[in-house]
Design a protein that fits this description.
Length: 109
């Protein structure tokens, strides 16, 4: 699931095994301390609103010792994984999906 929901679930569900947000809004920085699940975060390269909030949220994740990996896909726009929009980027979508499946295999099996 894209957007903010995976990260929000990670702040609300302490038993969540893993979460993979795609270019979603970050929760408030104080919520980072509630995250117990490992995160794999995908960002569009050209997404000023979402990317501007990332440094503060990343600092909060680090301070809370949250396990996370973040990838930014250069030249892509918000929604790059949605093949029903002109922003779709097939190469970035494939790479992000391959990374997502590997992440879930690692954390959910």
């Amino acid at each position: 699931m894209a957007g903010a929901w995976p990260t929000r679930c990670a702040t609300e569900l302490p038993d969540l095994a893993a979460a993979v947000p795609y270019y979603g809004n970050h929760p408030p920085v104080e919520a980072a301390a509630k995250v117990k699940a490992p995160l794999l975060i995908h960002f569009a390269g050209v997404d000023e609103r979402i990317n501007a909030a990332w440094p503060a949220y990343e600092a909060a994740l680090k301070a809370a010792s949250v396990r996370y990996t973040a990838h930014q896909y250069p030249g892509t726009q918000h929604g790059f994984n949605n093949d029903t929009t002109p922003r779709f980027d097939a190469a970035a979508a494939k790479l992000s999906w391959d990374r997502t499946l590997a992440f879930f295999r690692q954390h959910l099996v």
